[in-house]
Design goal:
This protein has 71 residues and is mainly alpha-helical. The protein is 76% helix and 0% strand.
Length: 71
């Protein structure tokens, strides 16, 4: 359902690269590390949202069954 909210993990990749460079990483290394983190958080976000969808479906079914039993 498009009206349902989802989890969104946002990273300020520019700030993270800047912090890594300030800690001694070369730009290419910092960008690679942050890209890996970004890809991982994207995967986690997808998995969380899929699980939320499963919970919503189960809740909806349970709620409908409860309503039916109360009639």
């Amino acid at each position: 359902n498009a009206s349902m909210s989802t989890i969104a993990i946002r990273l300020d990749t520019h700030q993270l690269v800047t912090r890594l460079k300030a800690s001694g990483f070369e730009e290419r290394q910092a960008e690679s590390v942050i890209q890996t983190i970004k890809e991982t958080t994207d995967q986690v976000e997808t998995q969380i949202n899929a699980q939320l969808g499963n919970y919503r479906s189960a809740f909806k079914e349970d709620f409908q069954e409860l309503q039916k039993n109360l009639r």
